[in-house]
Write a structure and sequence with these properties.
Blueprint lengths: L12 H4 L5 H10 L8 E2 L4 H17 L26 E2 L4 E6 L4 H12 L9 E6 L5 H13 L5 E7 L2 H4 L5 E4 L11 H22 L5 E4 L4 H10 L9 E3 L2 H15 L6 E2 L2 E3 L7 E3 L4 E2 L2 E2 H4 L3 H23 L5 H15 L8 E5 L3 H13 L24 E6 L7 E2 L7 H20 L1 H4 L19
Parallel strand pairs: 3-4, 3-6, 4-5, 6-7, 7-8
Antiparallel strand pairs: 1-2, 9-12, 10-11, 12-13, 14-15, 15-16
This protein binds NADPH dihydro-nicotinamide-adenine-dinucleotide phosphate and oxaloacetate ion.
The site of NADPH dihydro-nicotinamide-adenine-dinucleotide phosphate has 26 residues, from helix 4.
């Protein structure tokens, strides 16, 4: 099987097989909806299911090669005939989600969360398009089989493939998790180059075939620079749509503040992670709130905040690897869910969430104009203003505080405080990101790469 061949299993068996056990079929019918058709369905009786299946046979006969779904997901059913027999309900338009590294540890948690409806909602049908490689293909088939056997009502389509140009076609979301892990003795620069190449190729594929408004969340490390490379290789997709996952760091930081303050973690808000998803990341205790009050008012131990808290969050991934023997997978999947939810539901009033994003110069101009005209920017302790709301180098993917109206888009939060401690650390993580960017200049179209990484540069999982 060539690398560009999407897998097409012998999946038409359900179309031609007579009705099997009634109960199983009732569930199966819920799984099968026409591709991209207006969705209306279904809690059917066996009779209705039979009609649906007959409809399916017709559609499938007319368009035998039109579906590349895995197994049960390759079957097309026409549910129009169903409406008189079923208690129908309205469904939203299908959302199509591609996941790379789909046979890996993180995906093994994430895919089932996506399929269950806990991410996009219980009225949102989804299609999962799983990207693998020769290396992972058998495992990917295993993943797809488990998804089949889970009978998730909202999971309408599953396909697996090895060619990003096929897998990314028309997708609304790209969750890019696949990346080579850094092995013993491997230089970080080499990792940047190998994974950067993967993300350059995937960026080109997104640019060519994905929905123009696709939202991209890069998880594979080093995720900020991978996201930058992906973005630069996809010039037809708004730069704003690219995210590097720093939500896990935000969640880790909230947990530590809650522990110290002796409160449950839902009391912690306005938690920003600034910068790189690496050991230079900056968990911001200056702006964080506990029960609506500044964290520094609740936790008066500044030394703890500056030293222990900061180091614990920066190194949490490494400590976990020492305990588990592998990097965080379940909590990473949860944080991907949180990151998506933060974009598809409105941010609670006054709060924000962290995401690795890049500055959009036009939007920044508008924001700055508004800030100045409203008198929102007064001095250094309020907001830095050298060219963007915070004065951070542009053209990197930098974790910052964001707010969303729930429409998939976001704005940067500008009502943040800054002090010398925070600013110094932001400059350090910024320097690391700029150095990483220079290492991958050959992949971003910015000339010849020159790699001179700061000595203590490490992924969160390294210690
Ligand atoms: N941003 C964050 O907060 C976090 C990021 N991570 C990162 O997420 C990524 C995935 O983690 P996890 O799912 O646990 O990893 P796994 O090792 O379980 O899976 C990674 C997948 O990456 C793919 N891959 C791509 N290129 C290579 C390669 N050269 N060698 C080996 N595998 C490759 C493989 O899929 P295939 O063969 O199909 O391409 C593999 O299934 C890692 O980069 C990790 O560092 C982890 C935790 C937190
Ligand atoms: O370094 C890794 O692979 C793991 C990682 O990102 C984390 O745990 O935050």
């Amino acid at each position: 099987m060539g690398l560009s061949t999407a897998y097409s299993p012998p999946g038409s068996r359900l179309v031609t097989t007579p009705l099997a056990a009634g109960a199983a079929l009732r569930r199966s019918v819920q799984l099968l909806l026409p591709r991209r058709a207006p969705l209306a369905t279904v809690r059917c009786s066996v009779d209705a299911a039979k009609q649906v299946q007959e409809g399916a046979a017709t559609v499938a006969a007319e368009k035998p090669a039109s579906r590349k779904g895995f197994g049960v997901f390759s079957t097309i059913y026409d549910l129009k005939a169903d409406s008189e027999h079923c208690k129908s309900k309205s469904w939203k338009k299908l959302v199509s989600i591609a996941v790379s590294g789909a046979a890996g540890m993180i995906s093994n948690h994430l895919l089932f969360k996506l399929a269950s409806g806990e991410v996009f909602g219980q009225d949102q049908p989804i299609a999962l398009k799983l990207l693998g490689s020769e290396r992972s293909f058998q495992a990917l088939e295993g993943v797809a089989m488990e998804l089949e056997d889970s009978l998730y009502p909202l999971l309408r389509e599953v396909s697996i493939g090895m060619d990003p140009y096929e897998v990314f076609e028309d997708i609304d979301w790209a969750l890019l998790i696949g990346a080579k892990p850094r092995g013993p003795g491997m230089e970080r620069a080499a990792l940047l180059d190998i994974n950067g190449q993967i993300y350059a190729d995937q960026g080109k594929a997104l640019n060519a075939v994905a929905s123009r408004n696709v939202k991209v969340i890069v998880v594979g490390n080093p995720c900020n620079t991978n996201a930058l490379i992906c973005m630069k290789n996809a010039p037809n997709i708004p730069a704003k749509n690219f995210h590097a996952l720093t939500r896990l760091d935000e969640n880790r930081a909230k947990c530590q503040l809650a522990l110290k303050a002796g409160v449950f973690y839902d009391k912690v808000s306005n938690m920003t992670i600034w910068g790189n998803h690496s050991t230079t990341q900056v968990p911001d205790f200056l702006n964080a709130k506990i029960d609506g009050r500044p964290a520094k008012e609740v936790i008066k131990d500044t030394k703890w905040l500056e030293e222990e808290f900061t180091l614990t969050v920066q190194n949490r991934g490494g400590v976990l690897i020492q305990k588990w023997g592998r990097s965080s997978a379940a909590s990473t999947a949860v944080s991907i869910v949180d990151a998506i939810r933060s974009l598809v539901t409105p941010t609670p009033e006054g709060d924000w969430f962290s995401s690795g994003v890049s500055f959009d110069p036009f939007k920044l101009f508008v924001v700055l104009f508004w800030c100045f005209s409203e008198g929102k920017i007064e001095n250094k302790t309020q907001v830095y203003t050298t060219g963007n709301p915070y004065g951070i180098a542009e053209d990197t993917v930098f974790s910052m505080p964001c707010r969303s109206k729930g429409d998939g888009d976001y704005e940067l939060a500008t009502d943040v405080l800054m002090d010398d401690f925070l600013w110094e650390r932001i400059k350090k993580t910024e320097a690391e990101l700029i150095a990483e960017k220079k290492c991958v200049a050959h992949l971003t179209g910015e000339g010849i790469a020159f790699c001179d990484l700061p000595e203590d540069t490490m992924l969160p999982g390294e210690m």
